[in-house]
Amino acid sequence: MSDAAKPNPAGSGDVPPAKKADESAAQKAAGSPQPAPAGTPATAAPAPAPEPKPKVPFSPVLLKHINEPNSHTLAHYAARGGYETARGHVGVTPPGDLIKLIDDSGLRGRGGAGFPTGKKWSFLAKGTGKPIYLAVNGDESEPGTFKDRYILERDPHQLVEGVILTCYAIGSKHAFIYLRGEFILGFQRLEAAVQEAKAKGYVGKKIFGQEVDLTITVVRGAGAYICGEETGMLSSIEGGRGYPKIKPPFPAVSGLFGSPTIVNNVETISAVTHIVKNGVAWHKQWGTEKSPGFKIFCLSGAVKKPGVYEVPLGITMREMIDTYGGGMKDGRTLKAVIPGGLSAPVLTPEMVDKCTLDYESLAALGSMLGSGGITVLDQQVDMISAIYNTMRFYHHDSCGQCTPCREGTGWLEKVAHRFHHNEGHQGDVELLGDIAKNMRGRTICVLADAAAMPMQSYLQHFKQDFVAKVKETAFVEKQRTYRDEITPTAKTITATGAGPSALDVGSNGSKQR
Amino acid sequence: MTIKEVKIKIDDKEVTVPSNWTVIKACHENGIEVPHYCYHPDLSIAGNCRICMVGVKGAPRPVVACAQPITENMEVTTKGKDIEEARKSVMEFMLINHPLDCPECDQAGECRLQDYSYDYGRDHGRFHEEKVVKSKATMGPHVKYWGSRCIVCTRCVRFTDEVSGTGDLGVIYRGDRSEIALFPGKTMDNPLSMNTVDICPVGALVSSDFLYQTRVWNLKSADSMCSDCAVGCNTRVDFDAKGTIKRIVPRRNDKVNKEWMCDYGRLSFPYAQENRLMKPLVDGRDAPYKDARKAALELLAKKSVVILVSAWNTNEAFAAVKEFAEMHLPGAGIAGYANPGRADEKFPGFTISGDKNPNRKGMQEILGIDAEVSLKELAADTARIGTLVMVHNIPGYAMTPELKAVLDRTESVILLDHAKSDLLKYGNVAVALPTLTTFEKAGTFVNKDGIAQVFQPAMEPANFGRSEAEMFQDFARELSAAAAVTGAVAKVKG
Question: Exposed (0-12), middle (13-18) or buried (19+): which is B485, by Cβ within 10 Å?
Fold first, then answer.
């Protein structure tokens, strides 16, 4: 059974995006009476059109204090009631109740896959006799995503408190927080926060005076995108090459050092702090039925005010661009939007109009919410240049483990490079689609899909841009011409539209063997 | 998890397999072909080549058979359009950056890429870009690396991690630039290094010793057994058209050597074709068999005969010696000796025995003597030995003080050996009879774990030799004939 065939207990491969199948599995698993968004992206109206809930005013939660001076210190955090939630629950509330609370809150993984967090926690293998680990994914490397960075640099204590609560809930005595290697300030501030918490007795032996131990280890990556994939990250923490591991077994069964491991994103764990503090009803007052709560979005591209915006889920994409982003830059018109990090399939302006920012709406549009990195492209952007740049990224960052991804990402980049230099040949557009199709769903992790999905979506929505760069010659023809030139005695082959296969060339054309 | 037998269906064929198997193992054990590069039954699962895709009922798309655990009532399909397409796409990806250097590649003819190209290859390429060129390297004294041919299946990396435990190799760089490299300061000079050449499914890791020696399709092969140590690895010996041994590779035997073999054993074969004792020698001169046998029998008629057998001989030779001595030399002593041993070389997945004798156990079983103890006793004895029958057959034997002591008080020696060894330089070798190497004879060796293994001749003898067992049968036949004649004469006279 592939990982999409059954509910994926740890499917939120944090930075590379989830497959659509994960989303639907997650929706099924949630057991909601509402029918899943059906129909094709072209015909289906965005699911949350009838919004039953009254609009509740929202002010940022995770990012509320990031612009205050010394917001990263314990003194600042304690002054706003920091660690009181953890003190109130650790050793007091039964861990099962905390898991149930998070499950009831409907919190979904913020790393990219959107797998229900409480469900993931409940998949944890029990009674194995091995330690349980929590691994927090802070290897934020999806292009266009820069949300965890703000939490790490400006308000790391809410993450530490979230780690304390999560570890208590899942019964873990050791948490690893894996940071992207380039996050120097984030690392320094998080490490300092952990030390401050340790000095206060919030981390270490007998935390909060209870019979609960917790060690937090902050690990820095060495600059690999693939280490943001959850099992790639585990390999990296183990000290190995950041190769993703085969699933099953899922990390919740056999993860870090072969022990049951829960992997969650920085934003998810930070949100846990606030949900435990304020309760399920508080969390559910925002968002949609299947995507409750709030999320940080990273808005970049041709908008007036790019930046991080924490908003309730379910607002429209237009609202995000026009209200929060201040609209398009002067004189620019919207051409496309990449909604959830670079690997999310691109949206055309018509799709943007229909789009709301929640997991199910974007899934219905054939794209995904992903990590929340929204990149707005305007009419000045050459889509070929954009896809070439995208392919260059995935070629550079494929780990090289699985054949389709290792070879396919490079091939896609090379063909895209030719298009970029107006060197497309007859048949190349189909070739790109074919390569992308052959890469999808055939690898250990979803990086191959992450590379193939944007290519497929660009080909689908911006095919004319590709076609415009195609020359009149095909590669096979070009070779024949060359061969005819060097062997003047050979009978000239007239190339037909369909083109005989290369095997025919030898027997039909030149006498050379 | 308890292991139980579960029923599964592979291509409408119902089979029962243990629940801890993977789908690829279930297929292979039931004779169903599933292509694979990275999967190796004795290594951990990497699941990275992605060609072993099969269909599993209920799964939305093909899954890799090597990483797919068996579940009850699973329905597996190994054929079908989508599976074929998936495998074809993987083959295409494999080959886009692979150089077309089959004409000069050592692996050509036994290359998985070539094999599977027949089944899943395209008739023409769609890749018109520049290929990725990777580095070439010398990994160790016996192994070279051609990076561009590498498909990064990581079998070699897993081998050095799990079987040899030396951890010499790793993957460097990312994506399609990935290549295998030595860790800084390391050389792959462990005595298991050449197994990486065997398990490399393509021509990336090649043996420096076999490189450019011959094309593999010109080789003839025969099954044999390695006699270099007490493990008794099962081997396949490859000969060129002239019958010269070109290489030795391991043959699977899960009870003995799995699919591994040490470099010593692989490179041990030159002794079979160099410096051989071609014909019998009598007093250092070539002689016909008839004369040599006659001379030997005369020496055997002397008083105080000792038969000294090495632990390099077959069970059949031991039995022949025992029987011959019982029937024809009632007073003769039988002693044994062995190639001096050294410490075992232990690796996580393989042990090279320090006992450099293939059949010490067999000697114990049949002759009831321990090689070392018996030679010590003989050396300690001071009585003069009239004739010493030495059944030697140890290649590259270094004289031990004990054996020297024995030889020094021996009048004449009858030496049975396959090579013109240093023993011949001892003046007291009166008769030397050429014997056969392990490659040339049939026999039985009992390995260190007490497993008796029968082997057959892999090649025609390079000399005019005979096996030791046959020699003693010859002696016995002549002696019986002579006894019959003397008996008849005595009758007539009487």
Answer: exposed
Strongest mean pLDDT among A14-18, A421-425, B142-146? B142-146
Closest residue, chain A, to B71 (C-alpha): A1
Query: Mean pLDDT throughout B124-133?
Result: 91
* pLDDT tens digits, one per residue of A495-507: 444 444 444 433 3
Return the residue matching tokens 């169903």.
B32
Q: Is the ipTM of this complex over 0.85?
A: yes
DSSP assignments along B10-29, one per residue: ETTEEEEEETTSBHHHHHHH
Closest C-alpha among B193, B217, B264, B232 to residue B102? B217
Say whether residue B150 is in contact with chain A using an 8 A CB cutoff. no
Q: Tell me: the pLDDT tens digits for A217-258?
A: 999 999 899 999 999 999 999 999 999 999 889 999 999 999
Most A CBs within 10 A among B23, B89, B171, B183, hence the mutation to make, goes to B89
Quote the tokens at residue A92: 């007091």
- In whole angstroms, give the CA distance from residue A291 to residue A107: 8
Tell me the C-alpha to C-alpha distance, in Å, between residue B410 and each of A107, A158, A170, B299, B389.
92, 91, 81, 12, 10
Residue B164 to residues B139, B143, B147, Cα–Cα distance (Å):
15, 15, 22
Q: Are A263 and A14 spatial neighbours (Cβ–Cβ below 8 Å)?
A: yes
Counted residue by residue, chain A has a size of 513
Tokens of A368: 């995904």
Residues of chain B contacting A418 with CB distance shorter than 8 Å: 129
Query: Using an 8 Å Cβ cutoff, are A121 and A250 in contact?
Result: no
H/E segment holding residue A437: helix A428-439
Of A1, A21, A407, Cβ closest to residue B58: A1
Q: What counts of helices (H) and strands (E) characterise chain A?
A: 21, 10
For the entire predicted model, the pTM comes to 0.87
